[in-house]
Amino acid sequence: MKLFWITTVFAFLLFVIYTQAQHKAGPEQCCFYFYTRNIPERFIKTYQPTHSSCPKKAIIFTTTRDKQICVDPDMESVQRVISKLSENDPNQHFPLA
Protein backbone atom coordinates (compact mmCIF):
# COMPACT_ATOMS: atom_id res chain seq x y z
CA MET A 1 0.00 0.00 0.00
CA LYS A 2 2.85 2.36 0.83
CA LEU A 3 4.45 1.66 -2.54
CA PHE A 4 1.18 2.55 -4.27
CA TRP A 5 1.09 6.02 -2.67
CA ILE A 6 4.75 6.69 -3.40
CA THR A 7 4.22 5.70 -7.04
CA THR A 8 1.08 7.85 -7.27
CA VAL A 9 2.81 10.92 -5.81
CA PHE A 10 5.81 10.39 -8.08
CA ALA A 11 3.57 10.08 -11.16
CA PHE A 12 1.70 13.23 -10.16
CA LEU A 13 4.94 15.18 -9.76
CA LEU A 14 6.13 14.01 -13.17
CA PHE A 15 2.82 15.11 -14.67
CA VAL A 16 3.09 18.58 -13.09
CA ILE A 17 6.68 19.03 -14.27
CA TYR A 18 5.76 17.86 -17.77
CA THR A 19 2.77 20.21 -18.10
CA GLN A 20 4.79 23.17 -16.81
CA ALA A 21 7.53 22.46 -19.36
CA GLN A 22 4.94 22.20 -22.15
CA HIS A 23 3.38 25.50 -21.12
CA LYS A 24 6.70 27.34 -21.24
CA ALA A 25 7.60 25.95 -24.65
CA GLY A 26 4.59 27.50 -26.38
CA PRO A 27 3.83 31.09 -27.32
CA GLU A 28 2.77 33.49 -24.62
CA GLN A 29 0.03 35.17 -26.60
CA CYS A 30 -1.96 34.14 -29.68
CA CYS A 31 -4.94 35.74 -31.39
CA PHE A 32 -8.02 33.76 -32.31
CA TYR A 33 -10.32 36.60 -33.33
CA PHE A 34 -9.55 39.89 -35.05
CA TYR A 35 -10.89 43.34 -34.33
CA THR A 36 -12.19 44.35 -37.76
CA ARG A 37 -12.87 48.07 -37.38
CA ASN A 38 -10.26 50.72 -38.11
CA ILE A 39 -8.43 52.05 -35.08
CA PRO A 40 -7.23 55.66 -35.32
CA GLU A 41 -3.44 55.78 -35.46
CA ARG A 42 -3.27 58.27 -32.61
CA PHE A 43 -4.62 55.61 -30.23
CA ILE A 44 -1.97 53.00 -31.05
CA LYS A 45 1.22 53.07 -29.04
CA THR A 46 3.04 49.90 -30.14
CA TYR A 47 2.59 46.73 -32.12
CA GLN A 48 4.04 43.25 -32.15
CA PRO A 49 3.43 40.18 -34.27
CA THR A 50 2.21 37.00 -32.63
CA HIS A 51 4.57 34.05 -32.31
CA SER A 52 5.08 31.94 -35.43
CA SER A 53 3.67 28.86 -33.69
CA CYS A 54 0.29 30.54 -33.14
CA PRO A 55 -2.50 29.11 -35.32
CA LYS A 56 -3.27 32.52 -36.88
CA LYS A 57 -0.79 35.12 -38.08
CA ALA A 58 -1.74 38.35 -36.30
CA ILE A 59 -0.58 41.71 -35.00
CA ILE A 60 -1.22 42.85 -31.45
CA PHE A 61 -1.68 46.60 -31.15
CA THR A 62 -1.22 48.18 -27.73
CA THR A 63 -3.27 51.32 -27.32
CA THR A 64 -2.41 54.47 -25.44
CA ARG A 65 -4.62 53.10 -22.64
CA ASP A 66 -2.58 49.86 -22.56
CA LYS A 67 -5.34 47.71 -24.09
CA GLN A 68 -4.19 44.95 -26.43
CA ILE A 69 -6.12 44.40 -29.65
CA CYS A 70 -5.62 41.60 -32.17
CA VAL A 71 -5.77 42.69 -35.80
CA ASP A 72 -5.30 41.05 -39.17
CA PRO A 73 -1.82 41.85 -40.55
CA ASP A 74 -3.14 41.66 -44.12
CA MET A 75 -5.53 44.59 -43.66
CA GLU A 76 -4.36 47.69 -45.48
CA SER A 77 -5.15 49.95 -42.52
CA VAL A 78 -3.07 47.74 -40.21
CA GLN A 79 -0.10 47.85 -42.59
CA ARG A 80 -0.41 51.63 -42.80
CA VAL A 81 -0.32 51.99 -39.01
CA ILE A 82 2.67 49.65 -38.76
CA SER A 83 4.53 51.70 -41.37
CA LYS A 84 3.81 54.93 -39.50
CA LEU A 85 4.91 53.48 -36.15
CA SER A 86 8.10 52.08 -37.67
CA GLU A 87 8.80 55.43 -39.35
CA ASN A 88 8.35 57.40 -36.14
CA ASP A 89 10.30 55.00 -33.93
CA PRO A 90 12.96 52.80 -35.56
CA ASN A 91 13.17 50.71 -32.36
CA GLN A 92 9.51 49.78 -32.84
CA HIS A 93 10.22 47.72 -35.95
CA PHE A 94 9.40 44.01 -35.63
CA PRO A 95 9.70 41.50 -38.43
CA LEU A 96 6.31 40.45 -39.74
CA ALA A 97 7.44 37.07 -41.09
Write out key terms for the chains shown.
alpha+beta; OB fold (Dihydrolipoamide Acetyltransferase, E2P); elongated; Chemokine_CC_CS
Describe what is shown at a glance.
With 97 residues, the chain is an alpha+beta fold. The protein has 2 helices and 3 strands; from the N terminus they run H-E-E-E-H. Strands 1-2-3 form a 3-stranded antiparallel sheet, covered by helices on one side.
Descriptive report:
The protein is an alpha+beta fold and 97 residues long. It has a domain at 29-92: Beta Barrel (OB fold (Dihydrolipoamide Acetyltransferase, E2P)), CATH 2.40.50.40. It is 38% helix and 15% strand. It has a three-stranded antiparallel sheet, with helices on one face.
List the helices and strands and how they pair.
Layout: H1 2-25, E1 44-49, E2 59-63, E3 68-71, H2 76-88
Antiparallel strand pairs: 1-2, 2-3
* Count of β-strands: 3
Instruction: Report the end-to-end length measured between terminal Cα atoms.
Output: 56 Å
* Helix/strand structural class: alpha+beta
Write the H/E string, N to C.
Answer: HEEEH
In percent, how helical is the residue content? 25-40%
Strand content: 15-25%
Ranges where pLDDT stays below 50 over 5 or more residues in a row are 21-26
CATH topology of the domain at 29-92: OB fold (Dihydrolipoamide Acetyltransferase, E2P)
Query: What's the main sheet like?
Result: 3 strands, antiparallel
Domain Chemokine interleukin-8-like: 27-85
Main location: secreted
Protein name: C-C motif chemokine
Subunit structure: Self-associates. Also heterodimer of MIP-1-alpha(4-69) and MIP-1-beta(3-69). Interacts with CCR1.
